[in-house]
Amino acid sequence: MKLTILGCSGGIGSGRHTTCLKVDDDVLIDAGTGITTLDFEQLLAIDHVFLTHAHLDHTLGLPLLLDSVGDLRATPLTVHALPEVLAVLSTHLFNWHLWPDFREIPSAESPWLRFAPLDFGEALTLKGRTFRPLPVNHVVPACGVHLATTAGSLVFSGDTTHSDAFVAALNAIPDLCHLIIDTSFENALVDIAQASKHHWPDSLAAELQALSVRPELWITHLKPGNEAAIMNELRAAAPNWGLEALMQGQVIEL
């Protein structure tokens, strides 16, 4: 399994792209502006998209993906997400006002887009890769993603702040090799972090103390311009962890 980081920033500018991770050649986890780094043939190869939540920095590439390649696909693009997330997309995105409903184009019997609810406690296996939603704590319905292979596991938190349930889920994955986790703000911006339910360095350091597993740790969703300051504070708050910022273009293999 090869995970390619197409976008992992908390914003845009100077080449930054928002969250989009590609699993091998056929699956995306989230569909932020990182999707625009793919060429046309790579877009056409995407068959499944797993969404952690409905915020635009994680979903805005989805309608443009369908607009670009929908008519060339032999089967619908399948979007997997919590039922509450799919309800938001139905009401606010694919609603014929903000964007056409590709679940009805060219017809309801033969659409370009299909929604597939995936709730907590469920899992989906595609070509030997198992995807499972994990509980997190964000301002909207959201999940992390546990990606399991025969070689080990990787977890992507999506957007979250402290969550006992997420920590418990991580500790229940003995073969956890990689953890990609959100830390968006410096400690001085703790009020904004708390209001928007993102980690800040001190909160993530406290979370790490509760982990009984020891994966490689990658920090994502760093706010533009604050990346170095956040990472410096993180390393000071959690000196026993080898913390690294996730990088656009990075490839993680299992």
TrEMBL record:
GO molecular function: 3',5'-cyclic-AMP phosphodiesterase activity
SUPFAM superfamilies given in the database record: Metallo-hydrolase/oxidoreductase
Domain Metallo-beta-lactamase: 17-199
SMART domains: Lactamase_B
Superkingdom to which the source organism belongs: Bacteria
GO biological process: cAMP catabolic process
Gene3D superfamilies: Ribonuclease Z/Hydroxyacylglutathione hydrolase-like
Pfam families to which the protein is assigned, alphabetical: Lactamase_B_2
This protein's name: 3',5'-cyclic-nucleotide phosphodiesterase
